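Usage example:
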Amino acid sequence: MLRTFFILFILGTISVAVLAGFRGTKSPLPPLQIFPDMKHQPRYDPQHESTFYSDGSASRRPVDGTIPLGYTLPGFFLQATAKNGTLQPEGFTDEPNYYNTGKFGDVYGDGFPIEVTDALVKRGQERFNINCAVCHGKVGLANGITSQFGIAAIANLQDDRIRTMPDGQIFNTITNGHNTMGAYGPNIAVEDRWAIISYIRALQKSQSVKVAELPAAKQKELQSKQ
Amino acid sequence: MANIFPRWSNILPIKIVVCVLVLGNAVSLGMWYYFTPKYTRVGYQPAQPVPFPHDVHVGQLGMDCRYCHSFVEVAAHSNIPTTQVCMNCHSQVQRDNPKLAPIRDSWATGKPMQWVQIHKTSDFVFFNHSAHVNRGVSCVSCHGKVNEMAVVYHDQPHSMGWCLDCHRDPKNALRPLNQITNLNWKPEDENVQKFVSTFGKPPEEQDRDFSNPKIKLTQEEIGATLVNDWHINPPDKNCAGCHR
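Running the assembly step on the lines above writes:
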């Protein structure tokens, strides 16, 4: 009797192990939940689908004439913070001023609406390497990795045309795209776009600096290498 | 009077005890092994509408996670990229690849892509990406080597015990902030002098001389320094830290 039990027991164990497999086995089946408790509450999570709205998406567009949390009212500085004594809007705002559009009326402006600091350029470097370098290359020479995979006619950011282009026009290119380049406005906060432009300017400068313009320490370093 | 119980029934109770013990142990062993997120979640790899290869985009092209998951540093939720993000490149790259047909349809019709969600914490838990990635916890600690996955799967159990394991001893997971999205980072790669001058010396080695560039820092040393310098103190005993 015990023998039959053990034979059945071993067969049972083997079949459980065969059916259920081991920890970490890849499986397309959703995780089993025996006691769901309150793990799934009837609420909408970000980017989830909805059976209520006709377009099937729980994320809604702002209704015309309303202002989402975190945005400012045109003409008001709801979220303004005082930096160096002047009021500045923060993050995503929609007021159509130079800071948000790169334009004065219909013409592109030149110059930075925020103070260009070391920290801003460093931030710009980080954001440029994340968002732009895959196509434009680390130095902006249009030799990013995707140029080997079929993205044609990437603009060379070291061209005289881009060097003399107003800052506001570059801002507009980042926000809305240009010809075959897509829009990056939805992914990059306004301040970061200005940071990227400051870094592009620094890159352009870095490719055309005369030795005499360098700080003394760097000049020495260069001479010792020659 | 004849025996009511035959002779063999004398050892029956022992046999029953043996069977119950063996079965009981097997069942609890099975529960321990199978009824845990280490089994139910780890390895979950649903079929996606487009078999998006992270290994090609991150490993081969060298893209940063934040090109696509662009709000992971500023939001609780790490966003899945929009169709437009794919079309930035795929309007030109692999234009005829049938695998990308759903992306092109979505771009043409404006209907969002329906990716299958893989990682999902229970709804009664508060989890915030920005609180972690801005405090030195890399994606790799919680999602595994995504940069080598052809199709993403659930790599870590994401159970409460797993969260607490790290919260009780975060020094094994911390790294400098500019290496958060570099999933191949190794503590040995860190430049000793730069590290010590920005974050200070490891708290237990205040007297050691780190001026020799050949010194390699260990994860323990880096983590302990950062915990000390950034005053890292994740909720571990306070239930309301995660169950708000």
